[in-house]
């Protein structure tokens, strides 16, 4: 059926609905995720277009010269490690960059020999697959809910939330002003302004935002960007302010792992309850299972 006749058919159907049920039906049509299967492809394409726009504005390693500490921390990793942003560069893209000689998955262990070992990869963003997993399989229906992404960087969690969820408001809080500008550019270009807002701020100044959030997302926010004392203080702040009963906290990696090695006095059992996740939702060949298993969900008690 072509667009015109499909629209006619829908309008015709709406005219037959009992008047008392019409507002409920229209509200359902506005907010339901039952149409996802018809729009998913468009949403994927839009996110891929956003990734292309961002790739054109950023160097291959997707780090800015303003990120001194993160650059230094990567260099100090025990194994040679490179930064590849998983939202901007999927596996196929990395393969083609390797073929063109612009990137390598291996490093030479003994200079001049053919002995090689795999390089470590660090991504500072969720991949498209991880975003879809979070919005389709980790979080419940977000109609009317407020979501906060702590350290929103390129804005991937916000764009994913706009396209894959019905969240009422999506807030990103980002310390780095250059990344805030990039997010603003994308939000404006793709007309996401009605539901996405980015704040250029330290999360430790955003108490009331955290206190009112229904969902807080924390993807490896502090580890590469703050020294240990600052990480400890930031986690103390999070644990004091993410307190809304029944709200949800999504972290990568687990809270236990994030807090281990830090000098903090945070008791997890009175604060949160971990919600088990099913990581077996995609066929093995299509996913980076290890990456999905880093995603953890907690309910605030
Ligand atoms: C690993 S990235 C997360 C990216 C994004 N949330 C995602 O999942 O795709 C972490 C970001 O947190 C930011 N950040 C670190 N400490 C912060 C703080 N105290 N307040 C706000 N942002 C912070 C960093 O600048 C960095 O861009």
From TrEMBL:
InterPro entries: Arsenite_MeTrfase-like, SAM-dependent_MTases_sf. Signal peptide: none annotated. GO terms for molecular function: methyltransferase activity. PANTHER family: ARSENITE METHYLTRANSFERASE, RIKEN CDNA 2700097O09 GENE. This is Methyltransferase type 11 domain-containing protein. It comes from Rhinolophus ferrumequinum (Greater horseshoe bat). The gene is LOC117023045.
